[in-house]
Amino acid sequence: MRAMYDSKTKTMYDYGMRELLTKEAKYQSWLDVEAALAKAQGELGIIPKEAAENINAACRIENIDLEEMDRIYQEIGHGFVPFLKVLVKACDEKSGKYIHFGATTQNIQQSAQLLNMYKIHQKLLKVVAQILENLGELAENHKDTIMAGRTHGRHAIPITYGYKVSVWINDFIATVERLRESEKRVFQIMMGGAIGAFNSLGEDGRKVQQRVAEILSMYSMEIPSRNINAHKIEYIMNLALLASNCHKIAEEVYATSIEEYGEVSEGFKKGTVGSSTMPHKINPKLSKGIIANSQKIYSLPQVGLVANARPFEADSSSYMIFDATLEEAISLIIEIILRTEELTKDIIVHKEKMYENVQINKGLDNSEYIMMKIAERVGKDQAHSLLYHLSMESLNNRVDFEEILLQDEKINSVFTIKEIEQMLKPESYIGLSEVFSVEMAKKARLIAKAIEK
To answer: In the chain, is it the N or the C terminus that has fewer CB atoms within a 10 Å radius of its CB?
Structure first.
């Protein structure tokens, strides 16, 4: 239940995210929620204010006897009661009896896990902002870097590398919107008690839950049922979609850095070793980690969907699944997103090789351009038939497309030799590639700045 790491993992700055995955961070989040619960109940007169203040002062990890907690855990076999017992001991005798008043284990643990995830979520968005900055610069710098557009693994028509990057930017912006829009549904406080109907506190329970949410800068669950897990699945799915954005870039870099393509390569630090036996090896280390961890995270929404279907008002097997799945999803996305930030920052684009590759078919990639020009006179269907015939003749007879065109009467009756030569140049038929590159570069920076704010 963790991400897949390699030597690259140790060199990446993690923005303080991994420390939020530690056992100490988990316990502190439990304490934060218990403190907020006591504070809210103190303000509403449900427990004495003095008790609420004392509980808040006690709710720090350094006040908790973790060894004693572990001893009690082995004795009674409950995952949360030992924590409560040592927290009670950390308070004065008068205040300790108001710990966990009207709440149940899952209220604290689920709310705390989502609280911790919310902190990580905000840091994740900061990394995404940096990725958008990186991609914006890449798109603008390569708005006119000509390359082959490919469909079904083969040459289609020319584009620019900036256009390719603009597609990635668009994907990331949509994912940011999904993540942001889902916050109000995902990061919710649940304080409904044992069954979720506020049996012990009634209407006051609703007020407590709302106030706890405010204290923790989170949202309040409308019906705090322990059987509702759709918001967790939604977040895991959003993380999987974010991973997919990163995966798409990694696959592209992984494939086109192969010697036969040679169009891009990962940033290379002098002295890095790729193989224990082959001295020449330089491997796509960042990309492979993105690909492997992404493939793993895609399985997690399905696990959540199965666990969500458990009957009745609460089920511990469901909690176990969601606790573990959320933790795994977070550890995976951290590894994926950090690698993607470094990859997009240092990616090396080999412009000359891209231009060499786009000319492999010697003008055939521009057949649509010539077809559309002819279509203005004879119609699309006839134009397509003519260019298909000429293209197949070029391919089958291994004759340059330009030579085939110059020999055709109809083509020669419409175009001059200079016009044919111009139409066969890859840069003559890139559509709005440059426009999209510039537009999306600008948008990437705007979204990045909005995230930072």
So the answer is: C
Question: Looking at the DSSP assignment, which residues form a beta bridge with residue 189?
Answer: 220
Q: Are residues 217 and 336 in the same domain?
A: yes
Instruction: State the catalytic residue, choosing from 29, 111, 225, 275.
Output: 275
Any domain includes 227: yes
Report the sign of the C-alpha dihedral through residues 429, 431, 434, 440, in that order: negative
| Whether the predicted pLDDT of 354 surpasses 80 | yes
Task: State the CATH number of the domain containing residue 157.
Answer: 1.20.200.10
| Strands 154-160, 146-151: pairing kind | antiparallel
Residues 169 and 283 in one domain: yes
pLDDT per residue as tens digits for the range 66-89: 999 999 989 887 789 999 999 999
Confirm whether 244 is a catalytic residue.
no
Is 152 an active-site residue? yes
- Let me know if residue 262 belongs to a domain: yes
Q: Per the domain annotation, does 265 fall within a domain?
A: yes
At 249, is the pLDDT very low, low, confident or very high (cuts 50, 70, 90)? very high
Distance CA 246, CA 168 (A): 9
Q: What is the span of the domain harbouring residue 386?
A: 364-423
pTM for the structure as a whole: 0.93
| Catalytic residue from among 152, 276, 280, 317 | 152
CA angle, 150 as apex, 255 and 404 as ends, to 5°?
A: 125
